[in-house]
Fold these 3 entries.
Entry 1:
Amino acid sequence: MPFKLAVTNIILALFGISVIINYRKIKTNFSIILFLPILLYVLMLCSIFWTIDAFETQKALSKEAFLLVIPVLFAIIPQFNQNQINKITKYYAYGFVIFAVFFVFRATIRFFILKDANVFFYHQDQNKDLGLIPKDLNAIHFSVFSILAYVYFLANEIKSFWQKMSLAILLVFILLLSSKNIILVILIITFIYLFYFAKSANRMRLRNLIVFVLLITSIVFFGRIKKRFEAEFLAHTAKSLSHNVIEGVPDGVHYVSIYEAWHQEKFSPNDYFPGTAFRVYQARLFFEFISEEPIFWTGFGLNASYKKLEEKGKKYNIYQGTGNDDGYQNKNFHNQYIQNFSELGIVGFLLLVTMLFVLLKRAVYNKNFIHFTFSIVMISVFLTESFLWRQRGVVFFVICYCLFMSRNYKTE
């Protein structure tokens, strides 16, 4: 996952070749579970017939082809049992510990050269050589990749010294990546594990979970905390739960509130959208598209919504960008649910939701905490990112989906 995209393609090609070579020795195990991502890709492929931007749709089809290729390969190879899945996640977890140590060590060296503490946080922006990881890796995506490694060590009841060290390293690394959404998720996941999944809480799981939910609810919805959330809705502030889509904001700009993002009729190039406000603005555009365009059943076509988003951006006079950035009108929806609905219609939306539903249902039924974490993280990150519209995102999702959902219970 952290290497160049060409490396990912080469490794997946080797995976495919190994499957073809051994094809006669193994039996296929197609199931409706593995067909769901394939059906999503077939819908993407069919959208070429109604897309409003054939060039963008054709360009995106090759990137999304992993939704077809990887499930087919998993349907041909033998199913994994739980011990094999544990071994795979073990290698994955230790691999990401190595990456975490490498990037922190790299940032330390760059700190002594550049004398700027920003080398330890987030990813590098377009204008400065600062950030913990390169920009093309994306701090949000890398946080998602790292959280599964963190959970592997968390879920080990008896931890060695090195496992405890690995757990601490990954936690610090995720915090340094500074994805507020993922940090919130990792705190919730940790509490859920301690209160519900851990063997030490076996006799008090339900009670602890109920207490935890009531505690979170009381914190969010009562007293001064509730007033603070209400104030944040109307505040003109740079602080945001979601990451900002344009970096390096100059002084003197007007920070758009969530309320303004949803209601304001006209903006100016001096209006800056913090992350959450921008996502509210994009959601607003989606509902306008639903009422104005015939997209409920078919959508605009795969990757074809950019043209319409650009038109809306000009209509509302949002910041159009300069030579250093693209402006807001060239950004995707930053919400996978809306992205699917707007480009593939209600069927594309329902296929995505169905995959997430069966993921979570199987995880709860099997009481597999890593599988459960993957489900929760995907449900969460899809709210703030068009995760599957990036090659690393779609590869990560479909491989983990197939790995967890094609588990062989007959051999256990």
Note: The chain has 16 helices and two strands.
Entry 2:
Amino acid sequence: MKRTILTLTVLLLAVLSIQAQHCQHGKKAAIENIMTRTSIRKYLNKPVEAGKIDTLIRAAMAAPTAVNKQPWHFVVVTDSELLQKLGGERFGKAPLAIVICGDMEKALQGPGHDFWIQDVSAATENLLLAANALGLGAVWTGGYPRMERCAEIANVIGTPEYIIPLCVVYAGYPDEQPAPKQKYDPAKVSYNNYGNQH
């Protein structure tokens, strides 16, 4: 009986140790994913699987959103002709574009109306990080507030007036491996009051 209890205790401690290591590895992996994300503008001639597209959208929708309004809409584009119209020559080889839009019928009313921009931007960053984690490359290209660009995008994907294209994310399997830019600058950090370095 004592031997059985000792064996179970050893097994339990081993399992807990493995779980702790896995948790620590997961934290490191999350930070590494953020630090290694970079913009990719060249893609292999290989489609992105439907399961990965679904994961990208689910990750985007997991973003924080003011008052949980979720004022976003995603238009997934895989048609080659539409992709060409959206990206022109710059992203002609991208097998996937996701147009990330603000839904003005779901946006907050009143002074907080423009929070939709933050919400949809947070969703976009989630999508970019998910792409990197899935082995895909992606690049965020702006739409809003350049209304002429928004109109061009809306014309291609047929959105109604209350749906505003914030940006287009092109994605696919990367055909380039640019090094991530090192953007950390301690001069851009203040503590407690603006200008205090420590």
Note: The chain has a mean pLDDT of 90.
Entry 3:
Amino acid sequence: MEETIAEDLNCTCYRVRKAARVLTQFYDDALADAGATLTQMSVLTELSRSPNVSVTALGKRLGMDRTTLSRIIKPMLRNGWIESGKSDDRRARNLEITKNGIEILTRCNNGWRQAESRMLRTIGRENRSVLFDLLDQAGGAVRDVESANAA
């Protein structure tokens, strides 16, 4: 039993998810005055870049499954930050950012910039670059394994 617990703590996914939770809370705290979470900011950012995008396409861009994304966008729809857009496919649900959503995103940017600046001062540009490279490599390795398994 002890061996399994020790192995779990050395698991790549465990360590990345733990760090992700800590970092997300740090950024969420920075965005609190804007009234949004980092995840909501990410959705708004993607919609500001790609208006009238399907929920499926948005999920792929954010690395989220449709169910998780649906839970995230419900309050955003209620708050008027996003709205349903037009789609050629009646089965697809497209989303667009609203004027209210752009205002929230603008307010989020201030808190995000402060948090990002603090993070950069703490870990440094070089370490951040290495971290980004390692995360990209890990994601790419998983995609490679999934592609090989699918073939």
Note: The mean pLDDT is 90.
